[in-house]
Design brief:
Largest sheet: 3 strands, antiparallel
Shape: elongated
Strand order of the largest sheet: 2-1-3
Number of strands: 3
Oligomer: single chain
Number of helices: 1
Radius of gyration: 18 Å
Length: about 70
Amino acid sequence: MPIFEYNCEKCNYTFDKLVMHQKTEVDCPLCQGEVKKLMSTFAVGASNNVSSKMPSLPSRPMCTSC
């Protein structure tokens, strides 16, 4: 589902919205101000049958020098 995260430039309210078409105009639900689309994480789901057939990635140590 294309759920995007937005932040209002007027009242600073952050919210999620389901947007089916790229040209859909989105306004703040609180103040109807202009919003900016945020970069957000996403999740990928799979059934047990699919995930068991996917190759596993080798585990890597976490970077501690950054």
